[in-house]
Design goal:
Acrflvin-R; AcrB_DN_DC_subdom; Multidrug efflux transporter AcrB TolC docking domain, DN and DC subdomains; alpha+beta; 375 residues; five-stranded antiparallel beta sheet; Alpha-Beta Plaits; 26% strand
Length: 375
C-alpha cells in the first residue's frame, strides 16, 4: 500500500492547501498580537510567611504559646512540606513551604486553608498577641515605578496626593494593585519635661497609663427601646494634639493636665522604616503591578494616557516621575527580535535565490514564517 505523499497531496489539492496556509498564517498573526508580554514570565512561589507579635514576651514564650499551636495547624494544610520557625523576644516568623509537586491551580487553595486553619485558633492565643499575619505575594513584580515629590509639602500631604494617584491608576486596565514605598506614618510626639515630673512627683509610668486609658476603646452597652437597640459609646479617643494636651494625669491624689508637663508636635515616624528620595527630595514611590497574563506594552500605553490626566490635575508644587519602565524595556526587546528576524529572513532569501533559484527560494523563504505561525 502506497503511503501518503504530502507534497503530492498539496500539489493536487492546491485550493485547500492555499486555504490552510492562509488560515495558519492568520492564526499565527492573531496569536502574536494577543501574546502576553512581560520582562519576566509569571511564576508561582510555593512559600508563605506567617508572623505574629507579642510585645514583652520572651523568645521561649513566643515559641511555646504562639508558634507551637500555629505550627500544628500548618502541618494540617494540604501539600505541606516543611515549616521553619524563628522565635525572638516579642515576635515569631514562620516560613511555610508546600511541596514542589503541588499543582499551580491548588496553591491559592492551600493559602486559603492556611488562613482559615490559623484563624480558627486565633482566639486561643494569649491576650495581647498581634496577628497572625500572612504574606504569600512574593510573585508580584512592579512593572512601572513612579516617584512623587513635593518639596513644599509635608509627608502627610504627600501621602494624601499619592493616595489620589493610586485610585486613578487602579482604574487602568490590567493594573491589579498599586503599592507604596517610602511612606512615613505620621505620629504625635510627646516630649515630657523631666524636671516638672520630678517637681510634681509624677512617675513616668503614670503618664503612659493615662494616655493608654484615655485612648482605650471599651464597650458601653446598649439602650433597648420598644423599637430598637441603641448602642452606647464613650467618646474618649484622642483626635489630635489639643485633645492629647487635655488628658488628665493623676498622681499623689492630684490631677494634672498632660499639656502642663509635656510638649507635643506632629511628624513622620522616627526612625523611618523605609525612605525614598528623588534628586535629594523626600518622595513616595508608587509601584504598579500588572495582572498575570497581561500585555506590558498595552499597559504602558494605558499608563501614559492615565498619567497625562494625573499630571494635568496635580496641585502646584507636586512632581511625579517614572523611574522604572518595564514597558520600554520589553518594547525594545520585541523590536530587537523583529529586526533580527527580518535580517535572518533576508539572509535565507538571498542564499536560497543564489543557490536554488527563485522558485525554490520563495518556497524556502515562505516556509520560515509559516512554521513560526504554526508554533
Amino acid at each position: 500500500m502506497k503511503g501518503l505523499n504530502l507534497s503530492e497531496w498539496a500539489v493536487t489539492h492546491r485550493p485547500l492547501t492555499l486555504f490552510l496556509i492562509i488560515l495558519v498564517s492568520l492564526a499565527g498573526i492573531w496569536s502574536y498580537l494577543h501574546l502576553g508580554r512581560a520582562e519576566d514570565p509569571d511564576f508561582t512561589v510555593k512559600q508563605m510567611i506567617v508572623g505574629a507579635a507579642w510585645p514583652g514576651a520572651t523568645a521561649d514564650e513566643m515559641q511555646r504559646l504562639v508558634a507551637d499551636p500555629i505550627e500544628k495547624k500548618l502541618q494540617e494544610v494540604p501539600y505541606f512540606d516543611k515549616v521553619r520557625t524563628y522565635s525572638r523576644p516579642g515576635g515569631v516568623i514562620m516560613k511555610l513551604d508546600i511541596l514542589e509537586s503541588t499543582p499551580t491551580a491548588e496553591v491559592r487553595e492551600c493559602w486559603y486553608q492556611v488562613r482559615k486553619r490559623v484563624g480558627d485558633i486565633r482566639a486561643n492565643l494569649p491576650a495581647g498577641v498581634q496577628g497572625p499575619f500572612f504574606n504569600d505575594e512574593f510573585g508580584d513584580v512592579d512593572s512601572v515605578l513612579y516617584l512623587l515629590t513635593g518639596p513644599d509639602y509635608t509627608m502627610r500631604q504627600l501621602k494624601d496626593e499619592a493616595e489620589t494617584i493610586r485610585q486613578a491608576l487602579l482604574r487602568v486596565p490590567s493594573v491589579t494593585k498599586v503599592r507604596f514605598y517610602g511612606e512615613q506614618t505620621e505620629c504625635i510626639f510627646v516630649e515630657i519635661n523631666n524636671a516638672k515630673l520630678a517637681t510634681l512627683g509624677i512617675a513616668p509610668q503614670a503618664v503612659f497609663d493615662s494616655i493608654a486609658k484615655q485612648n482605650e476603646v471599651t464597650p458601653a452597652g446598649a439602650l433597648e427601646t420598644a423599637a430598637d437597640a441603641v448602642h452606647l459609646r464613650v467618646d474618649g479617643a484622642l483626635k489630635g494634639v489639643e485633645a492629647l494636651a487635655e488628658v488628665p494625669v493623676a498622681s499623689g491624689g492630684k490631677v494634672f493636665r498632660l499639656g502642663d508637663i509635656a510638649s507635643f508636635h506632629r511628624g513622620p515616624q522616627d526612625p523611618p522604616t523605609f525612605v525614598a528620595r528623588h534628586e535629594g527630595q523626600p518622595a513616595i514611590a508608587l509601584g504598579v503591578v500588572m495582572a498575570k497574563g497581561g500585555n506590558i506594552l498595552e499597559l504602558g500605553r494605558d499608563l501614559d494616557a492615565a498619567m497625562a490626566n494625573i499630571r494635568a490635575d496635580l496641585p502646584l508644587g507636586f512632581e511625579i516621575s517614572r523611574v522604572a519602565d518595564q514597558p520600554q524595556v520589553v518594547e525594545e526587546s520585541v523590536d530587537e527580535f523583529l529586526r533580527s528576524f527580518v535580517e535572518a529572513l533576508v539572509i535565507v532569501l538571498a542564499v536560497s535565490f543564489l543557490s536554488l533559484g527563485w522558485r525554490t527560494g520563495i518556497v524556502v523563504a515562505l516556509a520560515v514564517p509559516l512554521v513560526l505561525a504554526m508554533v
